[in-house]
Amino acid sequence: MTNYTITPATALADVRYEIRGPIARRAHELERMGYDLIALNIGNPGAFGFRTPETMRLAMIENVRAAEGYVHQKGIFPAREAIVMQQQERGLRDVTDDDVFIGNGVSELIDLTLRALLNDGDEVLVPSPDYPLWTAATILNGGRAVHYPCRAEHGWIPDPAEIETLITPRTRAIVVINPNNPTGAVYGREVLARIARLAERHRLLVLADEIYDQMTYDEATFIPMATLVHDTLCATLSGLSKIYRACGFRIGWASFSGERKGAADYLQALELLSSLRLCANVPGQWAVQTALGGYQSIRDLVAPGGRLHASRAAILDAVSRSRFLELKRPMGAMYAFVGVKPEAYPQFDDHAFALDLLEHQHVVIAPGVSFNTPYRSHFRVTLLPEPPVLLEVFRRIETELQAAVARPVV
Fold it and tell me: What Cα–Cα distance (Å) separates residue 249 from each residue in 246, 283, 379, 391?
């Protein structure tokens, strides 16, 4: 037989997803060898004992018979109508069920919204650090991700004036992740309004990733981007995975608002793409109405005394006592984007450190560079474990940093 090689698509050369990349694969190898690992690289509530609310599980069970066939490509009416009602409660009076698309998680909708939009060479403004799927999906759909900086010294809040300098005739959309993954920043009304105005001036599609919309701490307040965007199209993306601890249900949605007349062809293209995959997971859609209309248990988890609030406090305490670490207080989401002080460890490299921490301390973290940063000084951990586990993790991190600094530089 003639030898041959199957090569991957060249577009993948610029795609990063270290959250499930080589470090995660090495972690799996170590687990198969019998090692017990503490994995903080993925925001997966079910892996840390969080349960989907019982009412949502019952809603799925009671509607199993209605979930055996294909449904409308945009999703079942009760789920879309519940999303409309949530948007109306937030002040968006002109949204209807026809403006809502349900997908197999927000991940699928990120891909579909960009695939319907981009031609080769078109640009999308994406925050840095970002949730890496936004950059990956832009590249894989022929576009170019132009990263606007969110700097630690500014609390990870972007500067709208700086964003506007990056806009070119090829710019088609801007991504806003709020509350932010990976930094935990929660954007204020003024910043969001200024981003909305620049998007309107340049006729950009606003892609508002708001999967952590109710997950805020202390005095932070979540402002829905759609309430500020009027004269251009805005897509609000959210779902059941995080707030409702139902990652495995694979249910997300995109709700469109703002100026829709000039976007009719784009929305028809998005419906075509939705039709090609027939429909999203049907059983999970039956949990949406119950989730959005019922008691919002996330509020107990993020309030003082709640588990997420306590875990966040444990991380803040551990970092404050560290010789090496620094952290801008996360005000939302379920992550901490931890930095290493350059004066304490000038040679720090996030990816190399993540590998060493895995091999020597059996802790899995996500290096900051995997979130499309131009620097290698940060790493992300999730707030999901119990506080004692997090304190043990940061003890091991400190031990590994001390050992790394003591090693001779080669």
Answer: 6, 8, 28, 31
Tokens linked to 350 = 């996030």
67-293, what's its fold? Aspartate Aminotransferase; domain 2 (3.40.640)
CA distance 84 to 98: 9
Determine how many CB atoms are found less than 10 A away from the CB of residue 326: 16
Would you kindly state where each structural domain of the chain is located, as residue ranges? Answer: 10-51+299-406, 67-293
At 189 the three-state DSSP class reads: helix
Give the fold, CATH level 3, of 10-51+299-406: Aspartate Aminotransferase, domain 1 (3.90.1150)
Cα 399 to Cα 387: distance, rounded to the nearest angstrom: 18
- Name which of 187, 174, 184, 182 is nearest 222 in CA terms: 187
Distance CA 380, CA 350 (A): 10
Q: Which pair of structure tokens corresponds to residue 341? A: 């002080």
Give the SS3 label for residue 157: coil
One-letter amino acid at 359 equals E
- The count of other CB atoms within 10 Å of the CB of residue 389 is 15
410 residues of the chain, pLDDT tens digit each: 568 888 888 888 777 676 667 888 999 999 999 999 999 998 999 999 999 999 999 999 999 999 999 999 999 999 999 999 999 999 998 899 999 999 999 999 999 999 999 999 999 999 999 999 999 999 999 999 999 999 999 999 999 999 999 999 999 999 999 999 999 999 999 999 999 999 999 999 999 999 999 999 999 999 999 999 999 999 999 999 999 999 999 999 999 999 998 999 999 999 999 999 999 999 999 999 999 998 999 999 999 999 999 999 999 999 999 999 999 999 999 999 999 999 999 999 999 999 999 999 999 999 999 999 999 999 999 999 999 999 999 999 999 999 999 887 66
59/40 Cα distance (integer angstroms)? 31
Residue with tokens 């000084």: 377
Task: Write out the two tokens for 105.
Answer: 């998680």
Residues with Cβ < 8 Å from 391, sequence gap 6 or more?
314, 317, 318
* Cβ atoms of 383 and 312 closer than 8 Å: yes
Length of the chain in terms of residues written: 410
Q: What does each C-alpha distance from 379 to 61, 163, 295, 410 come to in angstroms?
A: 40, 24, 34, 23
Q: Are 190 and 161 in contact (CB under 8 A)?
A: no
